[in-house]
Amino acid sequence: MRASAFVFSAVMTVTAMISNVADATDTLRVRLDWSPWGDQVPFHLAVKKGWYAKQGLNVQLEDGNGSVSTVQIVGNGDYDLGHASLATMAIARSKGLQVKAVAGFIRQNDIGLMIGKDTGVNSPKDLKGKKLTFTAGSLETPFLDRFISAGGLTRDDLELTNVDAANKGTLYMSGRVDGAFSSAPFMQPIFDRQRPTKTIKFSDYGLEFPSFGLFATEATIAAKRDQIRKFASVTAGAWQYILNGHEAEGVQAIMEARPQAKLDAQVLLDQIKILRGLVSTPATAGKPMGIMAEADWAKAIDTLQQGKLMGHVEAPGAYYTNEFIDEKLVKEIADGGN
């Protein structure tokens, strides 16, 4: 009896060890870009509908504090994947952080000048004498002069005020400045609630680089290839499912997952509406969600170099890979995950 009990105990111990290893392997810790907003809806919807779980994944989502922070923390190995600005990721890679994009969702530049509809401004040439605010250290800053010069102007032709990100919205919505540089899909729906706003996009003036997507370290990519493939593909499919007319369902999922954030459903819907217009580029038109194009990355590297943001520059293919987008799985999820 004692021998049988010992054998049984040993078997159970080994089984538990194997189970724990499997759980560790299939658990993915994901750091998001910011506090909850529209670009995070697909993650929470995929959790709610069990799409990750169906693929054997235990996904742990953690809100972020900006793309720079997320890139650094994931690059240090504290998380398996990050969701952030892929331009920020590329800059970090050029400076020695071994990270690479594995899926691109918002493939156009999200940055622009949000300007009051009552200002009469429709392009950079209309900015003479206007008061604008920006945040030093944000991704918009290195490109301000090039954007302004597209209208034949210089900084001396307008008034630029540097404020921290937390105060930018207050200054703009109070009417003390005419416009604010920031992420259009994030900020414009918030601004619109108090001041009718439109956006002049940086990308319309040759400032092209990718916005939000997934990335991981080279080491994690090598160690968790199958899990990353499933996670990236399910998330891409969730994005497409939402854009296929299920925006409200997605909004409900993130509001249920993050009740403490006191999110506004209409703001989230408006954020998704703006993000929809930034999903594809000419090089990715008609391609599955998540797929990135070498031509887009070549333009991005050139733009970031012109902004004097890059360290060691590599060929475009060093910054991204499409091997983790399973087109069949993306379509399955986009069609409802059945």
UniProtKB/TrEMBL annotation:
It holds the Pfam family NMT1. Pathway: Cofactor biosynthesis; thiamine diphosphate biosynthesis. GO terms for biological process: thiamine biosynthetic process. Residues 1-24 form the signal peptide. Residues 41-244 form the SsuA/THI5-like domain. Keywords: Iron, Metal-binding, Pyridoxal phosphate, Signal, Thiamine biosynthesis, Transferase. It catalyses: N(6)-(pyridoxal phosphate)-L-lysyl-[4-amino-5-hydroxymethyl-2-methylpyrimidine phosphate synthase] + L-histidyl-[4-amino-5-hydroxymethyl-2-methylpyrimidine phosphate synthase] + 2 Fe(3+) + 4 H2O = L-lysyl-[4-amino-5-hydroxymethyl-2-methylpyrimidine phosphate synthase] + (2S)-2-amino-5-hydroxy-4-oxopentanoyl-[4-amino-5-hydroxymethyl-2-methylpyrimidine phosphate synthase] + 4-amino-2-methyl-5-(phosphooxymethyl)pyrimidine + 3-oxopropanoate + 2 Fe(2+) + 2 H(+). The keyword Cytoplasm does not apply. GO terms for molecular function: metal ion binding; transferase activity. Belongs to the NMT1/THI5 family. Homodimer. Responsible for the formation of the pyrimidine heterocycle in the thiamine biosynthesis pathway. Catalyzes the formation of hydroxymethylpyrimidine phosphate (HMP-P) from histidine and pyridoxal phosphate (PLP). The protein uses PLP and the active site histidine to form HMP-P, generating an inactive enzyme. The enzyme can only undergo a single turnover, which suggests it is a suicide enzyme. This is Thiamine pyrimidine synthase.
